[in-house]
Amino acid sequence: MRAFSQLLDGLVYTRSRNAKLALIAAYMREAPDPDCGWALAALTGDLNIPAVKASAIRAIVEERVDPVLFAMSRDYVGDLAETVSLLWPKRIDQPAEIDDGSLTLSAVIDRLMKLGRAEAPGVLGEMLDHLDSSGRFALLKLATGGLRVGISARLAKTGFAQAFGIDVDQVEEVWHALSAPYGELFAWGQGGEKPDPRGTPFFRPFMLAHPLEDGEVDLADYAAEWKWDGIRVQIVGTGEQVRLYSRAGDDITATFPDVADACAGIHAVLDGELLVQGEAQGTAEHGGAAASFNALQQRLGRKTVSAKMLSEYPAFVRLYDILLDGDEDLRELGWSDRRTRLEAFATRLDPSRFDVSAVIDAADFAALGDIRLGSRDAAIEGVMLKRRDSPYVAGRRTGLWYKWKRDPLTVDCVMMYAQRGHGKRSSFYSDYTLGCWTGDPAAGGELLPVAKAYSGFTDEELKWLDSFVRNHTLNRFGPVREVEKTLVMEIAFDSVHDSRRHKSGVAMRFPRIARIRRDKPAEEADLIETLRAMIS
Amino acid sequence: MAHWIEASPRGVYVRPADAWIDPSVPVDRALVTHGHADHARGGHSQVWATPETLAIMALRYGTEVGTSVAYGETISLGGVDATWVPAGHVLGSAQILLEHAGERIVVTGDYKRRADPTCAPFEPIPCDIFITEATFGLPVFRHPPIEQEIDKLLGALHASPDRCVLVGAYALGKAQRVIAEVRARGHHDPIYIHGAMERMCDLYRDFGIDLGELHSATAASADQLRGKIVVSPPSALNDRWSRRLPDPITAMASGWMRVRQRARQKNVELPLVISDHADWDELTATIREVAPSETWVTHGREEGLVHWCETHQMKARALALVGYEDEDEG
Fold first, then answer.
1. From which domain of life does this come (chain A) (predicted)?
2. CB of A83 within 8 Å of any CB in chain B?
C-alpha cells in the first residue's frame, strides 16, 4: 500500500505534466502484479468499489476520537478522508505512524469489493491501524470512490504507455476491451501479445485538424464543411452494445441516453459532433441549425440525466465520418469514399437524432472565404477543410485536415484583478480578470468583470504585465490583487453568450489577450452593451 | 485565583510589576519570551529577555537595549519573581515563571518538546496556572520525526541533480534548524541562503551553533545551484527572487504542511512537516506533566485544547490574545 499512497501524494503535489507521467510510469514498472493493474484502474476512474458510506467512516472515528474534537478538525481540514487520515489514533499495541507493510493494494481492493455494509466499519478500522497517514488517505479515498488527485484517464494511460514504451493510442484501442486489473495489458507491456479487442465496443483515437494559418488550399483537393461548436463524439456499435466516447476517450454513454438509445443495435463506428437541438448556430442553409454550446453544456458531465433535461436539451449528432461499417475497416479509404459510405449508412438512422454534416458548395477558395465571412451572422465558428483522399488517421497529420476558424471577435476591456499562474508561471501575475463598463464612466458607469484571460501574450509582455500588477496594486484578497483600473486590453474571443452566473450577464468563449492597449484611456474601453450586441 | 495577572488583547499584564509579557504595542516594561516579531516588538522603554533574544532584537530593531537574563536566573520586579526557563522553540526562547503571593504562573510563549540542535530543550515547571500556546491545538496535527522529513528533502535533492531544492523556512529559527538537521544527516555540501537570513545565520554561529558551509544564493549562478539546497523565507518561494534558480523543487518546512490543501495553495511540491511548535500530542502530554490547577490557552486553536482539558477533568479557559501567530512560522 505504501508505494501506492506515495504515488498519490506525489501526484497531489506535482504540477508538471511530465513529472506526473514519470511518477506513474515508475510505479507501473515497479509495482507487483496485480497492484499495478488496480492502481491503473483507480487512476483512470475505472475502479468501482461499492461505496463505503461517509457515515460509516464517521462512526468508526467517533468510537476512537472525541466527537467534538473530530468536528473541529473536520471543519479545519475540510475533507473527511483527509481529516480521518490525519487524526486516526492507532490501537495502543500498534507501532506508531508507519505503514507496517502488511496490506497490499490488491488485498485491500479485494477485501473492499466483497465488503458487506454491516462489516464495513470493523474491517476498515482494522486496515487503518496498519497504515501511515498517506496510506489511510489512499484507503479512504479508494473506499469512498474518487481519488481526486487531479489527473485525467488519458494521463494515467499515457503514464502506463510510457512505462513500457508503447504508443498511448495503441493502449486506447484495446482499453475498453479489458477490465481491471488489466493482466493482459501488463503482459503486453512486458513483451507479450497485444490484446485483441474485437467484439467489444472500444474507442478509436480521433483524427484531428491543424489550424489553417495563412495558407490557401485548392478546393479540387479539399472538401469544406461547417465547423460546429459542440463536442466531438465517437459512436461505437457492435450490433449488441453501443458506446459514446468523448474526444479524450471517456465513455459518455450514460450522459447521452437519448442518442445512445436512438442508435441501439448499429454495427459501425461513426465520428460526429454532439449538439443540442435548437436555433442558435446555423440555419437550414447550413444543413440544419443547432443550439449554442451553452445549451450543450447543461448536459455535459452528468452521470444521470433527468427527463426534464432530456426534453429541454435534446441532443443529436451531426455525422462527419465513418470508421467501420460492420466489421469492415474503412479507415484506409480516402475521405470521399468514406463520405459515400457514410451517406448510405446514415439513411438507416433516426433523422431526428442523426444527420450528416453538409458539404459547402464553393467554386474556389476565394468564394469559400466570402461564404465563411457570411457565416458570422449564423453564429458558425468557421469551416473545416478535409483532403478528399485522406485516410482516417489518429491525431493531427499535417496536410490532411484543417480548421479555418472565422476571425475572432474583439472587445476592449480594463484589467481589474490579477492572480499568479501555475507551474512555470507561479511567480508571475498571469491570470487576469477583465471588465467592461455598465455605462458611460463619466456618468457614473462602473466596471463589471466580463472575462478571465491568461494567454495570448509573449514572454516579454508577461514580464511587463507582471510588473504593472505589482506597481499598481490597490488591494490584496488572499492570492488576488486588485489593480488600478487603468490598463486597457483588447480581448479576442470566439463568441459570447447570456449567462446567469455572471453579474455582467454575459460569458465569453475562449477569451484571450489580443493586444495590450497602453495607448488607450480606460474610460474609452467598451460598454457591456457593446458585448451584449455580439451575443449569438 | 491569580488576581495579580490579567490577559488583555495586548498581552499578559503582570499588575504588581507593572510589566507586560510579549506585548503587541510599545509599553514601559516588557518581559519577552523569544525573538519572533509577533512576540518581540520594538519600541519598549525597558526589556528583559535572554541574551540570545536581546541579540535578535538588536539585529531587528537596531539599538534596542535591555536587561539580559540567563536561563534559570530570577529577577524581582514589584514583588514578582520572574525566571526565564528554556522553551525549546528557537535560539534563546524561554518560558517565563512568575511567582507572587504564593502562586506560580508559567507563560510558555511558543514551545516544542522535540530535540533541536539549535536551542536548549523545554523544561517542564510545576505551577498553578499554565498559560500555553495552541498553534497546533487539534488532533490532526502530529509532526512526524524530523529525520524522516530531512530524508525526504535529501532524497528529492539526489533524485534531481540538475535542479535545486528551494526550502521555504522562517528566517529566525526554522531556517537554522533545517540546516543543522541536514548537517546531522551527513549532508555537508554548501547550502545557499537568501540575503534576508544571512545576518540571522551569522548570529546563530556567534552563539556557537554550527551550520556548516553557507553561501549567498543571490551571488550564485544557476549552474552553481544545481543539485544544491537553497533556503529562503516562505515569501520568496514563488516570487521574483526565485526565478533565477535552476528549475527549483519548491519545498516548505512548516507544521501546516501536514494538511494537503494548505500545501497545494502555496504551490509547494515537497511539503516538509517540520515545526517549532508543540503538536497535539506534545501539548496534551505537557499539560499532564505540568499538572497545573488551571490551564489558560492562547494563540492558536484554543477551543480544541480547552475542550480536551475539560473532558479530562482539568480546568481551562481560552484567552483572547490577538496579534500572534504568523502562519509562515508554524
1. Bacteria
2. yes
* Chain A residue numbers touching B246 (CB-CB < 8 A): none
Is residue A271 included in any domain, yes or no?
Answer: yes
A422 assigned to some structural domain: yes
Question: Inter-chain contact B301–A72, Cβ cutoff 8 Å?
Answer: yes
Specify whether B13 is located in the same domain as B117: yes
Do A377 and A445 sit in the same domain of this protein? no
User: Buried b / exposed e across A162-201, counting CB within 10 Å, b at 16+?
Assistant: bbbebebbebbbbbbbbebbbebbbebbeeeeebebeebb
pLDDT recorded at residue B326: 46
Half-sphere exposure of A398 (CA within 13 A, CB side): 2
Q: Is residue A53 part of a domain?
A: yes
Predicted confidence at residue A51, as pLDDT, reads 64
Question: Is there a contact between B240 and A427 if contact means CB atoms under 8 Å apart?
Answer: yes
* Per-residue confidence in pLDDT tens, chain B, 330 aa: 678 999 887 889 999 999 999 998 999 999 999 999 989 998 899 999 999 999 999 998 886 679 999 999 999 999 999 999 999 999 999 999 999 999 999 999 999 999 999 999 999 999 999 999 999 999 999 999 999 999 999 999 998 899 999 999 999 999 999 999 999 999 999 999 999 999 999 999 999 999 999 999 999 999 999 999 999 999 898 888 888 899 899 999 999 999 987 888 788 999 999 999 999 999 999 999 999 999 999 878 889 999 999 999 999 998 866 555 544 455
B139/A69 CB distance under 8 A: yes
Using an 8 Å CB-CB cutoff, list chain B residues near A73.
138-140, 304
All cell numbers assigned to A372: 465563411
Report the residue from B138, B240, B271 with minimal CB separation from A13: B271
Q: How far apart are CA B118 and CA B274, in angstroms?
A: 14
**What range defines the domain where residue A38 resides?**
2-144
Domain containing B229 — which CATH number?
3.40.50.12650
Pairing of strands A495-498, A506-509: antiparallel
| pLDDT given for residue B327 in this prediction | 43
pLDDT in tens, A148-180: 777 888 899 999 999 999 998 889 888 878 889
Q: Do B243 and A427 touch (CB under 8 A)?
A: yes
| Whether residues B189 and B82 fall in one domain | no
- Which residue, among B86, B58, B14, B31, has the nearest Cα to B22 in the 3D structure? B31
Contacts of A14 in chain B (CB under 8 A): 269
Check whether residue B11 and residue B136 sit in a common domain: yes
CB atoms closer than 10 angstroms to residue A394: 17
Render A459-481 in DSSP notation, one character per residue. HHHHHHHHHHHHHTEEEEETTEE
What's the total number of domains in chain A? 3
Question: What was the pLDDT predicted at A245?
Answer: 93
Q: Examine the domain organization and report whether A394 and A440 are in the same domain.
A: no
A520 is catalytic: no
> B9 and B117 share a domain?
yes
- CATH number, domain of B78, equals 3.60.15.10
Residue bearing cell 475498453: A176
Using the Cβ of B248 and the Cβ atoms of chain A, whether some distance falls under 8 Å is answered with no
Q: How far apart are CA A149 and CA A126, in angstroms?
A: 25
Domain shared by B259 and B282, yes or no: no
Higher pLDDT, A46 or A347: A347
Q: Are residues B180 and B85 in the same domain?
A: no
- Looking at the fold, whether B95 and B161 belong to one and the same domain comes out as no
**Looking at CA atoms only, how far is residue B221 from chain A in angstroms?**
19
Q: Between chain A and chain B, how many beta carbons pairs sit less than 8 Å apart?
A: 70
> Touching check for B254 and chain A: CB below 8 Å?
no
B307 CB within 8 Å of a chain A CB: yes
Distance CA A268, CA A346 (A): 11
Where among B272, B291, B312 does a domain terminate? B272
B142, B301, B307: residue with CB nearest A68? B307
Phi, psi angle pair for A514, to nearest 5°: -90, -45
With contacts defined as CB-CB under 8 Å, which chain A residues touch B270?
13
Please tell me what DSSP assigns to residue A298. T
Which one of A389, A405, A421 terminates a domain? A405
Which one of A157, A227, A386, A485 is the catalytic residue? A227
Same domain as B119, residue B104:
yes
A139 and A233 share one domain: no
Domain range for B226 is: 146-272
